[in-house]
Amino acid sequence: MYGTRVAVLGAGIVGCACARELALAGFEVTVVERGAAASATTAHGEGNVLVSDKGPGPELELALLSRRLWPQVLAEVAERSEHAARAVEWEPKGGIVVATTDAGARELTRFAAGQATAGVRTEDLDADALAAAEPYVTREHTAAVHYPQDAQVQPAAAAAALLTEALAAGATLRTGCEVLGAVTRGGRITGVRTSAGLLEADGFVNAAGPWSGELAARLGAPVDVRPRRGEVLVTTPQPPMVFHKVYDADYAGAVGSSAGELRTSAVVESTRGGSVLIGSSRRRVGFDDRLRPAVLSVMAAKALRLFPALAGIAVMRAYGGFRPYVPDHLPVIGADPRLSGLWHVGGHEGAGIGLSVGSARLLRRLMLGQPTEIDTAPFRVDRPAVLGGGTRMEREETA
């Protein structure tokens, strides 16, 4: 595929991962970003690389693939730059899920047993083991499961490392360049009109995160990817007090819910700098980016029930971002059947950081016509959940 021109539309972590894979495969890659690289959704994430929150099925298979790939990718980054690899802050610290009700314990036990059959490593923790692993977690719990495969990265640094690898392999980056529409010929996309002029290529990858639906509509091939708002609280730096990613057993249910109203669960973890990150919330409010004190209050209250020791610790800031939501909660990865030359990689909701490298590997193999490590059919673009929404816009036809 040397010399084949591909434009990756979006420079969040998914777009950066796609650019890296394609550039290393010999494609002539141009990355187009309307703002700055990794400055939107990627910069507002927690950096989760999780398997613990996914039940058996295609998303878990993608998560396990990505979890295997992350250390390999970072080892390749380190070969070029040890500094860049260290900046990613790869931390395979594991996760712990805690139930605080009898019903929650039953559901957590059932969920973990299903995951174990699908290749996830799980370990039940009794009261003593949980206290040893997390001394400050609540003692009012009914069950706890340790997931040693869970990890964390610094998301903006991870995206920067992937993009740097792509640029070193020959890719180019255009920032401050907004895609306005498509130029097509004979049912194939041949170019995109941008705020900086026309960009022509042989293939185009829609990797615009929560804006993927809007971008797809501009290109004339709508997909139902919508924004789903989330917030995070950040405490002042503390002595070590949270040693894993710890969340309550309601988290998986909140992730899997399709409800538009507010859903919250307690998610608590520390950064290397000592700050404690507190989440999480999910609500569909379009692109309304206002912080809501009532949402932050609910999150804080749930975090206190999970970690009573957080009482009295100062919160120094709060931030929010948008997750790319698809109604059936599965990513969109593959060629658009309506417009030849257009590919989509997105809709990962809150898992885009972790799933980025696996999704990019699948895209690379699909574009090369090679076998993929996992079945990509569940992620296809033409499934009802993806093509069931949005408004088709007129495409610009040129002779």
Describe this structure as you would to a colleague.
- It is a single chain.
- This protein has 399 residues and is α/β, with parallel strands linked by helices.
- It is 32% helix and 26% strand.
- It contains eleven helices and 20 strands.
- The protein has helices at residues 13-24, 58-80, 82-87, 102-117, 127-133, 155-168, 212-219, 251-256, 293-306, 352-368, 384-387, and strands at 5-9, 28-32, 48-49, 95-99, 123-124, 143-147, 151-152, 172-174, 179-185, 188-194, 197-200, 203-206, 226-235, 245-248, 263-270, 276-282, 315-325, 332-335, 342-346, 396-397.
- It has an eight-stranded mixed sheet. Strands 8-2-1-12-19-18 form a six-stranded mixed sheet. It has a four-stranded mixed sheet with strand order 11-10-9-20, with helices on one face.
- Residues 390-399 have low confidence and may be disordered.
